[in-house]
Amino acid sequence: MNWDILNSRSYTPYSGKQRSCLIQGKSGKFYAGVRIENVSYPLTISAVQAACSICVSEGDTPSALLLPDTDFDQLEYWKNEFGLEIRVISDISTIEPEDLSKIKSTSEGSDLQDLLSKAVAPNSDFPVSALLYTETGMYEGVNIEFTEWASGLCAERVALAKSIANGDTELTDLAVHTKFGEVSSPCGACRQVILEHLPLNKIRLYHSDNSMSEHFTVDLLPFSFTSGSLRK
After folding, report:
1. Which residue out of 156, 170, 182, 214 is catalytically annotated?
2. Same structural domain for residues 15 and 115?
3. Is 0.90 surpassed by the pTM of this model?
4. Which residues pair with 144 in a beta bridge?
5. pLDDT for residue 227
6. What pLDDT, on a 0 to 100 scale, did the predictor assign at position 232?
7. Is 148 in the same domain as 197?
C-alpha cells in the first residue's frame, strides 16, 4: 500500500483535495479512511473521522493515527478523544489496511438485527445498522457517536466510508434497520449523502415491527440540494 493509492480513493469532486490516513487499533489492525465530500459541504466526511468511525465500528479502539503530513482538520480533537499517537510516515508499503468487504447477505433482516449490537451510541441510545451492497460484496455499518456529537457518523455513512476507502465504488443498494421507533429511516443528512452515491438505487428499510418497505433513494429526499454552480 502507498499514500498515492489511498489518496486516489478519496471522493473529492468539489475541492480536488485528496486526503487519506490510517488508524491503527489496539488490536494491531489498520483501518483506512479517505475524504468523502458532499454537494452540501458541511456533510463532508474527513479522512480521520472516517478512519476512527470505521475502527470503532469494528469493535476496535484507535491507538495511533498515521498520516502522510499534518495538513488535516481537527487533529487535536481526535488526538484527545482517544489519546492517539500521531505518526507522520511517508512509507506505508509494509502496511495493509483491513479489507472490510463481506460476502453478500442471504439473510438480510437477521444480519441487520445482529449487527445492531455493534452500534456505539452512548448519547442517543438509538442503535442503527446498515448493509451497503456493491457489485462485488457488502459493507456493514453501525452508528458511532463521539464526545463531539457532530463528529459521529450514522450507520449508512460508516458503511459508505468503508466501501470508498476500500476502492469499491460500484454501489448497488442499501438496507437499514433501527432497533426502536415506529419507522426505520435514514436521517436527512444521510439521505443527502446517500443520494449523491446511490441516486436511483433501492433502499430497504427494516422496521421495529419486523415489517420491511422498499424505496428509491430519490423518493426519500424530494427537492434535494443540487447545484450546477458547484465544481463536479
Report:
1. 156
2. no
3. yes
4. 120, 153
5. 73
6. 56
7. yes
